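Reminder: ligand-aware prediction takes two inputs, not one.
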Amino acid sequence: MAGNKALILALADKKERQRLAKNVLEPAGYRVLEAENAKAARALMHDEEPPLLLLGDSLPDGDPFELAEELRATHVSLPIVMLTEADNLDHALRAMRIGVVDYLRAPFEATDVLESVGRALQHRRNWLQWVKKETGRLTGTLNKRLTELEAILRQVDDGVLVLDGAKRVMLVNQALRSAYGLDDREVLGETVGDLFKNDEILRAVLAQEVHGEHTEVQGQDGRVFSLNTTRVPEVGTVVTLHDITYLKELDRMKGDFVNTVSHDLRSPLTAILGYVELIERAGEVNEQQAQFIERVKVSVRSTTDLIGDLLDLGRMEVGVADDRERLQIEELVAETIEEQRNQVASRGQTLRLSKSSKLPEVIGSRTQLRQVMDNLIGNAVKYTPEQGEIRVMLREEDGQVIVHVADNGPGIPTEEQSQIFERFYRASNAGDEVQGTGLGLAIVKAVVENHRGRIWVDSKPGQGSIFTVVLPVAEDSKRI
Ligand code: ADP
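Here is what comes back for the chain with adenosine-5'-diphosphate:
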């Protein structure tokens, strides 16, 4: 039986239609809705969602085969029985291609029609049952996979946070909960702003959402994490926090080591330099001896520079406290530019400063931040060939002061860009004629991070480099 839904009988011949409905189908218990043309059949299909369509092979307002094809596409579970007036092989073939379940030829005998309708309805029931079973199986597999995935995410040591498009929490795992003291609090649906109310840095990083970039953040339990955000289309943002506390500790130990060794190296060097200077005063030296003495002095000075850099870095990495004050980055930049003036002029370069109006203050160590500007602008001058252009741009955005130092020098090979902030790393295109220790950018990075800022480089080999430093604005900041 077709349940309480009516079959649709679309047949142009009114007499035959009524005979089939009244004398054959209804007496067998089927409800029947009659359609005299394609338009009516379409309307009934739309309103009734019937379990079966009996369709004549000629309709006054259109090709029934096209109608059948159209309905098969939109009502995938609908069986169609074709009722044909003429013995037409072409019609039979078309019907088969469309996928009608049966094809009856006039005269339509009651037993044939009822048998065919019964078969077609059974066919539909079987099909629906199969779909139901298959859907159940697939849903079961999917649910299982989902549960497994959730279990994995909950168990991994890295913190995982999934946010939807509106930055509301969709998933947060145990590692992240314990790092941020969330315990068993229900956080689903909360916004990042509410969730990390007390963590200004994390809020700022997540609000900014620079994808694929690693940022260091500190959890409430003191651990240090490398935070990475990835945009997942149609989901939102996946934030992962990888625990790097042990790496930081290792770094601190390295810093200690460097500090001690540098101190111990510096004193004998000072002595060497002192004695070398005394040689000249002790008596006449010939030209060759004077040359040797000069070489010793140059070497001792460059070693002293290297040790100085190492000491700075060591101090920075162990976080030796420096006096912090409110300051205008623009002033430091202006001082550096002034100091570089002669060098820039002798190389025929241009060095320009541009800034958006009224820059706010930042809080930091004047000496250290000056060192940042000296290194970045100094590098730009040092690596850019003669006649080159260097631009320093200052602006404010979202509570941060942003400094860009751009040049049109040789750039940095793409695969080396992530390494240039490491200690002693000098890019392969740096050239021996340009003096350097490979420590400048490591110092810059350590200072910037000590000031809760970020630094990165955008560079195209052969076209130039842009170093960007972002520092948080001091609260209630004055502007100039
Ligand atoms: P160095 O003492 O060698 O200048 P840094 O740590 O300051 O050391 O820089 C590391 C490396 O990064 C440099 O050796 C150089 O290869 C590359 N580099 C830094 N700044 C620039 C720049 N403005 N243009 C091209 N390369 C640069």
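The chain has 13 helices and 17 strands. The pocket of adenosine-5'-diphosphate is lined by residues 375, 379-380, 383, 407, 409-410, 412, 420, 425-427, 430, 436-442, 465 (CB under 6 Å). We will return to this case in the review session.
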